[in-house]
């Protein structure tokens, strides 16, 4: 009886809440909106909107799994997209454009990681400051003007392409990131070190984990994935803008926490993060179809974040 009660007390609802809410939302929107929500066109649109969010969410799983947070991703998205747009306009070289964007993302992640590990600056304030700096750079780069992107090859692979003529290429990027993230987090020594460091940093150090290196690597990976998301934004909209990704960090964090990653660190789920990303975009999409405005979408976003954090803390207490 005692062991049975212990098993019950260890049940962590935060690991499953994203799937429960997902099913409930499908049922609610199905009853409320009917065929306008369940049409193939609309469902594919939800997938397209989720692609970039899901890619960033994979990186955020590692950051939050370490007990940190990265608010700079929105500005990395914007500057990376502008770099791609400017280089494609000047040279037409996709490889050079992507190399510059991904390199920029890695550099930002390196700076964030070093500030957190070497200077012992709080990740929240560090990345908030970096976000402001990069937003200013993005506005300065083109004078807040959009940069059109007309390279058909780039637009296919990072925006409008369809696998088999049906499945959006953006889903391919999200699934690829999810698979790699899941393997790294669940089946590699690096993934175990991330969760060990997030769960108990002192114990991880005594166990021989180089926590500083693990943390810097996670921030660099997040920067690279945010830069890739910038390419997906640019490909989907056929342009680059300084305000790409504005406020997206809240959606990404909500998706990750809903997916079962505790804000306090020590846990993480790449699969849950992607499901959470689709859920967030599905809710926004349903509210738009239901003719509810930005105010209602913003309100729901706040409610979702509060629910996610509350369930995360509930799960933490049950595990303890």
TrEMBL record:
GO CC aspect terms: plasma membrane
Transmembrane intervals: 16-34, 46-64, 71-88, 94-116, 123-143, 163-185, 214-233, 253-280, 292-311
InterPro entries, A to Z: ABC_transp_permease
Domain of life: Bacteria
Pfam families, per database record: BPD_transp_2 (PF02653)
CDD domains (UniProt xref): TM_PBP1_transp_AraH_like
Subcellular location as annotated: Cell membrane
GO molecular function: transmembrane transporter activity
Alphabetic keyword roster: Cell inner membrane, Cell membrane, Membrane, Transmembrane, Transmembrane helix, Transport
Membrane topology: Multi-pass membrane protein
Entries under PANTHER family matching the protein: ABC TRANSPORTER PERMEASE PROTEIN YPHD-RELATED-RELATED, AUTOINDUCER 2 IMPORT SYSTEM PERMEASE PROTEIN LSRD
Protein name from the UniProt record: Autoinducer 2 import system permease protein LsrD
């Amino acid at each position: 009886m005692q062991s049975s009660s212990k098993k019950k007390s260890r049940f962590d609802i935060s690991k499953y809440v994203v799937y429960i809410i997902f099913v409930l939302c499908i049922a609610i929107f199905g009853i409320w909106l009917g065929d306008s929500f369940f049409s193939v066109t609309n469902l594919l649109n939800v997938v397209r909107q989720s692609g970039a969010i899901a890619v960033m969410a994979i990186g955020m799983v590692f950051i939050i799994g370490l007990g940190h947070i990265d608010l700079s991703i929105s500005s990395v998205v914007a500057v990376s997209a502008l770099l791609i747009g400017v280089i494609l306009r000047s040279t037409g070289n996709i490889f050079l454009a992507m190399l510059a964007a991904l390199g920029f993302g890695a550099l930002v992640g390196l700076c964030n990681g070093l500030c957190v590990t070497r200077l012992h600056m709080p990740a929240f304030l560090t990345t908030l400051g970096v976000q402001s700096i990069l937003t200013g750079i993005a506005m300065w780069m083109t004078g807040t003007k959009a940069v059109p992107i007309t390279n058909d090859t780039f637009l296919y692979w990072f925006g409008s392409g369809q696998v088999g003529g049906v499945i959006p290429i953006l889903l391919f990027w999200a699934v690829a990131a999810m698979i790699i993230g899941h393997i790294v987090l669940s089946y590699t020594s690096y993934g175990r070190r991330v969760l060990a460091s997030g769960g108990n940093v002192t114990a991880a150090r005594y166990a021989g984990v180089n926590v500083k290196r693990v943390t810097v690597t996670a921030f660099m990976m997040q920067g690279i994935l945010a830069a890739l998301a910038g390419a997906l934004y640019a490909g989907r909209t056929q342009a680059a803008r300084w305000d790409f990704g504005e406020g997206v960090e809240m959606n990404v964090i909500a998706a990750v926490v809903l997916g079962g990653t505790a804000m306090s660190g020590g846990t993480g789920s790449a699969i849950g993060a992607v499901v959470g990303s689709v859920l967030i975009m599905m809710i926004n999409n349903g509210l738009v179809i239901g003719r509810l405005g930005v105010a209602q979408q913003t309100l729901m976003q706040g409610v979702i974040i509060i629910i996610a954090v509350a369930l995360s803390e509930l799960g933490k207490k049950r595990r303890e």
